Amino acid sequence: MARAATTSDAFNAIAEPQRRDILALLRAGERPVTDLAQELGMSQPRASKHLRVLREVGLVRARGAGKQRLYGLDARGLRPVHEWVGGFERFWNESFDRLDTYVQDLKQTRQGE
Predict the structure, then answer these.
(1) Whether the predicted model's global pTM rises above the 0.90 cut
(2) Is the dihedral angle over the CA atoms 72, 77, 81, 86 positive or is it negative?
(3) Cα(53)–Cα(35) distance, rounded to whole angstroms?
(4) CA distances (Å), 37 to each of 48, 62, 73, in order?
(5) Which residues neighbour 15 within 8 Å (Cβ) at sequence distance 6 or greater?
(6) Kind of pairing, strands 68-73 and 60-65?
(7) For 67, which of 31, 33, 74, 106 is 20 to 30 Å away at the CA?
(8) What local confidence, expressed as pLDDT, does residue 7 receive?
């Protein structure tokens, strides 16, 4: 089976760790590519390349501000990822419930010794 292009959807786009780093920085607000590149210790062309991928899948938006382009998070693009991850909520809740029961049983056993 052929591998999907990295720009095809949000899942593929965020598989790249540096793109996740960019998204994490953009949670705090809009920033120019120069700030993002400096913060992440990468070249501006590399940061621009990652921003292009993130824009193509709808995770980042850009707007002009004077001579700069400001990039901001478009969280609507994360909806498919959020919905997919949310499908595991029941699993985690049940796991934490089992862990809580185990810890309570362990405490009672130790108090009884």
Answers:
(1) no
(2) positive
(3) 18
(4) 8, 16, 16
(5) 6
(6) antiparallel
(7) 74
(8) 59
